[in-house]
Amino acid sequence: MPYLVTACQGLLAVVLLVSATSKLRSGQALRVLAGSLAAMRLVPPRWAEPVAAVLAVAEAVAVVLLLIPATRRVGFGAAAALLAVLAAGVAVVLARGTAQPCRCFGASATPLGRRHLVRNVVLCLAAFAGLVGPAGPAVPAGTLLALLAGAVAGLLVTVLDDIVALLTPMSRTDLSKEMSRWRT
Fold first, then answer.
1. Domains of the chain: which residue ranges?
2. 122-143 pLDDT per residue, tens
3. Which of these, 30, 81, 85, 175, has the minimum number of CB atoms within 10 Å of its CB?
4. CA distance linking residue 67 with residue 122, whole number of Å
5. Of 87, 86, 72, 67, which Cα lies nearest the Cα of 131?
6. DSSP letter assigned to residue 101
7. Beta bridge partners of 101
8. Contact at 8 Å (CB) between 36 and 105?
């Protein structure tokens, strides 16, 4: 079981690192997130920028806590709480029927959907598994492999919208638009 905890650690560290980095890379990225939060009506417009900043910093802090062995459990708890709040936010947006893009990992045109809710719930469950899972003795090679597997899974999670877009068949209209764009 310690390998499952380690895989969850790698998964969450990568997902939260990419998410925090995409938001903190520039003031513009943070303002875009704030605008998105306000457009989703999750926070009043005047609170959107401070909430966006707190969200991004909380993600970064959770990453640091996850990566330090002495604070790993606290990191899992912080990640679980953060992901539960994010899942609740997505659920509210979906219940309202608001078609706003997901700014989870930076600029994306993909509107929030059920897959984003499922993703956040699964990540929250991974954080909870890491929080309650046993941390016992482990073989270093197994630990490294589990961490790597979790990190790869985390990278896949961060590009999930892109993967879905690649695997979704295009309509004839979309295909025609795309073809004409390449011709010019």
1. 2-183
2. 999 999 999 999 877 778 899 9
3. 175
4. 20
5. 72
6. B
7. 111
8. no
